[in-house]
Amino acid sequence: MASKPTYEELEKKVKKLKKRDVTYNQAKQSVKKSLEKQDGPNKDNSEPEMAVEVIEQEDAKEKAVEQVLIAEHIFRKAIEDSIPAGIAGIDVEGHQIYVNQAFCNMVGWSEAELLKSKYPFAYWPQGVIDSFKNDFQLVISAHVPLEGIELPFRQKNGKQFWGLVNSSDLHDSDGKIIGQLISVADISTQKRVENAMRDLSSKLVDAQESERKLVSQELHDSIGGKLTAIKYSLEKMISEIDQRSSDLGHPLDDLLSIVYDTIEETQRIYRNLHPSILDDLGLKAAIRSLCREFKEIYSWIDIESQIRIQEDQVQDSLKILVYRILQEAMNNIAKHSHADKVNISLKQTDKRIVLIVEDNGVGFNLNEIQEKESCERNFGLDNIKERTELFGGTLTIMSAPKKGTVIRALWQIE
What we know:
The chain has helices at about 5-20, 25-40, 45-80, 100-105, 110-115, 135-140, 190-245, 250-275, 275-280, 285-295, 315-335, 365-370, 375-390; strands at about 85-90, 95-100, 150-155, 160-170, 175-185, 300-310, 340-350, 350-360, 395-400, 405-410. The chain is built from 13 helices and ten strands. The strands form two sheets. It has a five-stranded antiparallel sheet with strand order 2-1-5-4-3, with helices on both faces. The protein has a five-stranded mixed sheet with strand order 6-7-8-10-9, with helices on one face.
């Protein structure tokens, strides 16, 4: 039994049908003449007529099957070309074997130009091939997650656009995998809106941090300064009273102790509002200070940290964000985890900043926490996740009951 024609064979037949100008009757007369030449004169023409009828019947059968296949092919092609999403086929060797009209319109190259081209394709910007290497491998191996992957594309005129890409295995008629079929939806408008929202949100966060910094300075310079003056006055009074051996010294000692506590609390508040050490000494020093203060309060929790970054390559707003995420993570550990060990890792690799905070606490069911809108922890987690994404990063939280919690934040840096 003859195998079903391939897509390319059907395409050739469609084009041949469009060009053919010899009618079937002309072909029939040609066959008759050919038989007459081979067999010589035949008075009753029975054998040529019989041969022609046999050929005619066989040709009619083949022609009917061929017409059905061609009609099916044309119908399928029309549907594929009317789909608004771009569709492209890639074989196992990385050759382009199929594109629909929508894909051609997206990238600006014609079908003839795209077919038989090989990876890395011209419509994937050369400047980002290395940066998105892992994502490209997911596409051509059909391991793209259900939500798809966002990838940059290049048009023939040099302009770039963003596409949401999905892929699946491409099988032949025997079920063998012969490549991958990818679909692309142009999300450039969506990305522009997201970037505009991100810029606006970033400005709001910067304004918030500036306000916090101003309040912190006011607490330090005004309230803190006055409390310090009160402390010195009380210390002087107590010293003079002690010299006269008066009984007023004991109440003043208690009052001085309250002033000490108030000064420490005020310092804690303005440091939390905006850590001045972050501006003065940088992110590394600020993290070490945060860990040291945490250890002083929660002495039973062991903290190990690895900080390997080049601070001159990290913008100030990202430094503040990293500090805030670590601050929130440590607060959650203190309030909820019952952990006795915390590992903090902040590393810079391959133009990425990665922050990982891991504890060995009781953990939690992430789905249950996310469903409880009023939960304090949920609010904190949503807050740091939102702020991470505002700066173009991703935040992943992994936790399970009795298995601790891991918070991982990642950002691309220029």
